[in-house]
Amino acid sequence: MSDATVQMGVAPSSSSVLLTLMKARTFIALIAVLVFFSLAVPSFLSTANLILMSKHVALNAFLAMGMTFVIITGGIDLSVGSIVGLCAMVAGYLVLNGIDLQIGYTVYFNVPEIILITLLVGILIGAINGLLITRLNVAPFIATLGTLYVARGAALLSSDGRTFPNLVGNPDLGNTGFGHLGAGRILGLPVSVWLLIVVALGAAYLSKYTTLGRHIYAVGGNERAARISGVRVNLVKMFVYMFSGFCAAIVGLIISSELMASHPATGETFELNAIAAAVLGGTSMSGGRGAIGGTIVGAFVIGILSDGLVMMGVSSFWQMVIKGLVIIVAVVVDQAQRKLQQRVTLMQMAKAG
């Protein structure tokens, strides 16, 4: 062992093992919560409860995927919960009221058109976030905090704070079937889970095998170097915020479809779960590092933790405390992993020398 390695105070083998454990922390946490709640709650692993949890996990995973791309570029999106609420209200409004053209004629849309319009609203809000950050140089935290309030206020204004109920549609208007998105099943699994699989596979492919994916990591790793090397940094940032808005719109659609009602408070604090899942899944808050697969596992941990605490009768107040602690611990472990990685790299260089 070289002098440089001895000065580190840690043997290379033990450091490598510890680093491996840190990298696998999300899987370890997933196994831990599964074992704990399966022992603490007898019905936890029942088929009905597993299907219900999968629906909850899907909602969190959609938001966490969008948040992952944003955080990898060194940003943050606090507006996703409010986008969920606004998009839910947009969908509910279109089902119930259509669009009044103010000429004595009202346009009603079928369900695919309602879904498309709602997704475009989410993408538009994401684009506004991107423009604020790239063109007006507003810090991501402030820009998305502002749109958080604007989107939530718009959701409340759309119905004066009331719920849009009974979104079954009208056969004469051709807008029935909205409930299938949130309550339907294909081969025994909820539609939302199949949608998650499709979007997750697409996002994972984009991040690993496309030029855009490499540029997303480059921007987060070193924005100045990425810009010098020809990466269109502003367009990359625009994309990640638009993708985040797109994912939030999907969640708004699924929730309003499942409940067959839209409420302006839908999605409150959802951004916390999204951030927690992304960070727990290995996404670095300093940017440049993260993976969709890890984020999905992180979403499972957060979803199982939330549902398990509810089944144990833990109050919602303590649930917020626990989720906050999860975020803090995940960030602390991430920082420790970065330092240990640097230490192991130095050890390997010293050994090679």
TrEMBL record:
The chain crosses the membrane at residues 26-45, 57-76, 82-99, 111-132, 186-206, 238-255, 316-333. GO terms for molecular function: transmembrane transporter activity. It is a multi-pass membrane protein. InterPro entries: ABC_transp_permease (IPR001851). One of its GO terms (cellular component) is plasma membrane. Pfam families: BPD_transp_2 (PF02653). Its main location: membrane. The keyword Transmembrane helix applies. It is found in: Cell membrane. Keywords: Cell inner membrane, Cell membrane, Membrane, Transmembrane, Transmembrane helix, Transport. It comes from the Bacteria. PANTHER family: ABC TRANSPORTER PERMEASE PROTEIN YPHD-RELATED (PTHR32196:SF21), ABC TRANSPORTER PERMEASE PROTEIN YPHD-RELATED-RELATED (PTHR32196). This is ABC transporter permease. It comes from Pseudaminobacter soli (ex Zhang et al. 2022).
